[in-house]
Amino acid sequence: MSKPSSNPTSKLFSKILIANRGEIAVRVIRACRELGIATVAVYSEADADALHVRLADEAYLIGPAAASESYLRTDKLLEVIKLSGAQAVHPGYGFLSENAGFARDLETAGVKLIGPSPEAMTLMGSKIASKETMQAAGVPIVPGYQGEDQSLETLQTKALEIGFPLLVKASAGGGGKGMRVVREATELEAALAGAKREALNAFGDETVFLERYFERVRHIEFQILADHYGNTVHVFERECSIQRRHQKIVEESPSTALSPELREQMGEAAVKAAQAVHYTNAGTVEMLLDDQSRYYFLEMNTRLQVEHPITEMISGLDLVKEQIKIAAGQALSFNQADLKARGHAIEVRVYAEDPDRGFMPSTGTIAYLKEPQGYGIRVDSALYPGYTVTPFYDPMLAKLVIHGADRNEAIGRLRQALSDYVVLGFKTNLGYLRRVISHPAFAKGDTFTHFVSTYADDLKSPEQAPPELLAAMLQTSTSLARSHATSETEAFSPWQSGLKLNI
Questions:
Q1: CATH, range 15-114
Q2: Per residue in 472-494, is it b (16+ CB within 10 Å) or e — as a string?
C-alpha cells in the first residue's frame, strides 16, 4: 500500500448518536469525550438506569424493553437524530450495526454512519454472495455450494459432491442460527428442513448453503481499516477459536498457530477481500485455519467486533477513534509498514449465564461487584453495584482484556485478574473462564473451535466454591448497603447526569 493521502480539511463531528447500549455504548462515549465530541444516548424502559444513559450528554427514551420496540426502531432513532442534531451515528455491534436499510435511511437523512457503505454491507451480509465475490477476487473459500437452486434434489447432489461431514448454514444467518452439522447422508433432509425453518423465523430468509465441516479447525480473523481514498490496512489477527454455542468467549492476539509468513499471507488476503467490495471504515475478515495451515474465507463482519480491544492493546490504535475519523472524511495517518504488534493480548467475555446448565442466561441485581485493576488490565464494562441484569438483551456483561510482554505473562496476569473478579447476585461464567485459561491445552496454545465440547468434563464446576468468592459473599450485605448510601462515581451524581428526554 502506498503512503496515505494527506488528510482532507474535514473536521470531526460535533455530536454523535450511539445506537446501542451496555459496554459498547460506554466505550464509544468515552472515545467521543476524548475527541471533544458530544454524545447522544438512546435507551429502553429497561435501561433507564443504565450507565451509558448517565454518561452521555443527552439521552432519549425510545420505547419498551423489547429490542424490537426500542433499539431496533429505526423510525424512533431517526426522530432522535433530528431532535438532537446528531451528525453521525455509531451503531456499535449487534442491533442495527449491519442493517443496510438503516444505513440507507441515514444517507437519505444526510447523517453519516460510522461504518461501511450500505452496498458493502448488503454484499458481505449475504454469505452466498460474499463467498462468490471472494472466490472471484482470488481469496480462498471453504469448499461448498452457494447456488441459487435450493431444491432438495440439488442440495442432496451437491452434498454428496462435497462429502460428509458438512454444514448447512443460513445465508442471512449469524450466531449459530440456521446452522446444522450433517455427518451422513441420511441426516441431510431433516437438517435442511430445520435450518430453513429456523432461518426463516430468525432472518425472514430461508436460503441456505453448504460447506465442508472441519472437525478440528481454528477461527482466525483479521482487523481491517480502510478510508475513502483507497488506503486499506490490516491490524493483525485475533484467534477466536474457544466458543460456546458458536459464540466466542476467549480471544487472543497473536495466534499461536501463525508463522510470520502465514500471517503476512492471510493479512494480504484480508486486505484483498476488503478491497474487492470497496470497503471503508473498520471491518473484520473471518477465516478458518485447518491443521495443515490452509486458510479459507468464512465471512466479513461489517462493523466493530466485540473483541476489538485486544487489537488495540497490541497495536496502540484506538479503533473507535479511527472509525470516527474515517467517517468524517479523514485519511488513515499510517500505512501497513507503520503498524507493529507488541506483546500479547487476551480477552475473555464475562456473561450472566450458568455454564453448568448449558450456558443458560441468568438475571438479577448486582449485590457485590469487584472488577480487577492493575498494570496491563482493562475492563470494558457498564456494570455497577445495584445494576439489574434483565432477560431482554444479550447476556454479555463485560470484557476483561489483558496485555503482557508475551503469552505466558498475559496468561499469568489473566489468571490473577480472574481470581480478583467477583460479581454476586446471579450466575456468571467467571469460574468457567478460570478453568478454561488454566487448562493445559490452552497453556500450550492448542485451541480449536471444539475446545469447549472436547474438554467439557475438565471444565465442569468444582464442588467447593473458590476462597475469593466465599470471602466476597461475606462482604456482600455491607457492600450493598454502602452502594445504596453513597456514590463513588461522578456518573451517578444527579449533577453530572446527562439530559434525559422522552420521545
A1: 3.40.50.20
A2: beeeeeebbeebeeeeeeebbee
Each domain of the chain, given as residue ranges in start order, spans: 15-114, 136-212, 218-454
pLDDT tens string 439-492: 999 999 999 999 999 999 999 998 666 666 666 665 654 544 454 444 334 444
Confidence (pLDDT) at 203: 85
- Give me the residues of the chain with pLDDT under 70, please: 1-9, 174-175, 463-503
Residue 227 sits at the vertex; the CA angle it makes with 253 and 129, to the nearest 5 degrees, is 75
- Superfamily grouping for domain 136-212: ATP-grasp fold, A domain (3.30.1490.20)
Q: Indicate left, alpha or beta for 376 from its phi (over 0: left) and psi (-120 to 50: alpha).
A: left
Could you tell me which of 463, 460, 465, 453 has the C-alpha nearest to residue 432?
Answer: 460
Number of neighbouring beta carbons within 10 Å of residue 500: 15
**Residue 70: closest CA among 106, 102, 44:** 44
Retrieve residue 132's grid coordinates: 462468490
> Hey, which residues are catalytic here?
303
| pTM of this structure | 0.86
